[in-house]
Amino acid sequence: MLKEEAQTLFKEVMGNYPTGVTIVTAADHNGEPVGLTVNSFASVSLDPLMILWSIDHKVSTINAFTEGKKFAVHILAGDQQELCKTFASKNVDRFSTCDWRFSENSLPIIEGAFAVLQCKTFKQVEAGDHTVLIGEVIDIQIEKRDPMLYHRRNFGSIPAEFYTLT
After folding, report:
1. Are 92 and 28 in contact (CB under 8 A)?
2. 11 in a domain, yes or no?
3. pLDDT per position as a tens digit, 22-59
4. Domain named Flavin reductase like: which ranges (predicted)?
5. Considering the domain boundaries, does residue 64 fall inside one?
6. Which of 33, 51, 53, 166 is the residue whose CA sits 20 to 30 A from 126?
7. Which residues 6+ apart lie within 8 Å of 23 measured at CB?
8. Domain with 61 in it: what CATH number?
């Protein structure tokens, strides 16, 4: 199989794998907020609490995440599709479109997410065209909201029928 063909099939397979959606934020070297939409997010450890996510080497704000010592992962709520799209866009003042604040850990926190995990960077691993960041969770916030689901390039809440299936 040709590399290009394999990459196309891989994208199709991964696009059919349902995931949650996150926005990861940090402060750059000037203290300005940066953030991007990420769906490559997973839990790693309960003791200590750890998560991981990955960032493409081509992302313009990669240095804020790889050189910084902390970041915040926002697990988006089902009604935050527009915010998700904004943080996935290029050349947009992303933070002007949402309510946010700096936390006690000096991290930009976006209001309205299902949950926010503030982390200190534990380890970084180079993996092909991405860097995997592993973070130790130092603060957790959760709201009584439904999380967002991403599947086949579509975003939305988990349907109520999902919970009635047996």
Report:
1. no
2. no
3. 999 999 999 999 999 998 999 999 999 999 999 999 99
4. 14-157
5. yes
6. 33
7. 35, 36, 37, 38, 73, 74, 76, 83, 84, 87, 110, 113
8. 2.30.110.10
> Domain of 43?
21-159
Distance CA 73, CA 25 (A): 7
The pTM of the full predicted model, rounded to 2 decimals, is 0.92
Total structural domains in the chain? 1
State both tokens at 127. Answer: 């993996």
8-state DSSP, 118 = E
What is the identity of the amino acid at 82? E
Tokens of 121: 């960077």
Residues in the chain: 166
Structure tokens at 53: 């996510």
